[in-house]
Design a protein that fits this description.
Elements (H helix, E strand, L loop, with lengths): L1 E5 L3 E5 L13 E5 L1 H11 L3 E5 L1 E2 L3 H11 L9 E2 L5 E6 L8 E5 L15 H4 L5 E5 L7 H16 L3 E5 L13 H9 L4 E5 H8 L17 H14 L5 E11 L2 E10 L2 E4 L3 E3 L8 H15 L4 H15 L11 H10 L2
Parallel strand pairs: 1-4, 1-9, 2-7, 5-6, 9-10, 10-11, 11-12
Antiparallel strand pairs: 2-3, 7-8, 12-13, 13-14, 13-15
Length: 339
């Protein structure tokens, strides 16, 4: 299976020891970004994965590509040009203080990406899955146009399209209607992931509450089933829908689960009780990467696909940085302990 992921690679800055961004004088930097996170997750599970982006032709840009390549991601098709890499500043949650993200992505190399720059017909040749997220269309109008160009070519070539909603309200600054644009993307897709808040935004349908404080919480499966049925009626092309759900009990204590709808059947995963969260960034990307690998690992077992995806996402909470560095063996070990 050959997978292509497409999006903006970012440089993430944060302080150490849960300091606020206004404290201290040392910033720690790590590379990340949703679609890059998915690529690394897949590479760690021994999938053949190529990451497509545009980076500045500078030491910082090349170091970003190297950070992925050293983890097994094919970065030979990265496009170089533009002036700068996009960045974001992350302040982790602590106690009653929520996490904070500040983006600085205007006029980045990816921001200035335009249709025609990337030879999609060549890149997508022999690809099994093409993965994008809502972020790819949120940065600028020209990047959105380039995203739809890629989606249309992948569709024409018969490549399975995997979509992560990844709605980030603070990114949609160039005048596009975020909900309308995301729905246009979904209409072209075959499999979709998102969290419950994103599903609500996309559909306009209020979500059933997920307030689990431990694994004993009872899910409202009938209501969720009706929700998925409505969405599939609006987007009949998309055959598989996965939803991740997280409840933040405290800054370091989360509960996590997932649902998978396919062919009119709704499956649920166990609720994972995660009492000591190290870094929650990239958990949704770990879900997505786990799912695409699980499709190959368990081709005829949807429940195992869902459970494996959840185990991958749960493990990401234990790993600092954006990347899920869990192997298939480690994910299977967690999956085997799920009840």
């Amino acid at each position: 299976m050959r997978i292509i992921t497409f999006g903006e690679l970012l440089l993430r800055f944060s302080k150490t020891d849960h300091l606020r961004l206004t404290q201290g004088d040392t910033l720690v930097c790590k590379y990340g970004g949703s679609e890059a996170n998915v690529a690394v997750s897949l590479a760690m599970q021994n999938e053949e994965v190529t990451y497509i982006t545009r980076l500045p032709d500078t030491p910082v840009g090349h170091a970003g590509a190297m950070s992925l390549a050293q983890l097994g991601v094919d970065t030979t098709r990265v496009l170089y040009g533009g002036q700068r890499i996009g960045t974001y500043y992350f302040e982790p949650a602590a106690g009653m203080r929520p996490a904070k993200v500040i983006y600085d992505r205007n006029n980045s190399a990816y921001y200035d990406l335009k249709p025609g720059m990337i030879p999609w017909e060549h890149i997508l040749r022999d690809a099994t899955i093409f993965h994008v997220s809502g972020i790819t269309a949120a940065i600028s109008q020209q990047a959105a146009d380039a995203t739809f160009e890629a989606l249309d070519i992948a569709d024409k070539m018969g490549v399975t399209i995997a979509f992560d909603i990844n709605y980030r309200k603070n990114l949609w600054k160039y005048g596009a209607d975020a909900r309308q644009t995301l729905r246009r993307m979904l209409a072209r897709c075959d499999m979709m992931f998102g969290d419950a808040i994103e599903f609500e935004f996309l559909s306009g349908h209020p979500q059933p509450p997920f307030t689990a404080t431990d694994a004993s919480f009872e899910m409202q499966m009938k209501e969720y089933g009706e929700w998925f049925d409505e969405l599939h009626a609006d987007f009949p092309r998309c055959k598989c829908w996965m939803m991740g759900m997280r409840n933040i009990v405290s800054s370091m204590h989360h509960t996590l689960t997932g649902l998978l709808w396919t062919d009119g059947t709704l499956l649920k995963a166990p609720i994972m009780d995660i009492p000591h969260v190290i870094d929650p960034v990239g958990v949704g990307d770990a879900f997505m990467g786990g799912w695409m690998h699980a499709i190959q690992l368990f081709p005829n077992d949807r429940q195992k696909q869902l459970d494996y995806s959840l185990a991958a996402a749960a493990l990401k909470n234990s790993i600092p940085g954006d990347f899920n560095l869990s192997t298939e063996e480690e994910i299977l070990e967690v999956m085997a302990k799920m009840k």
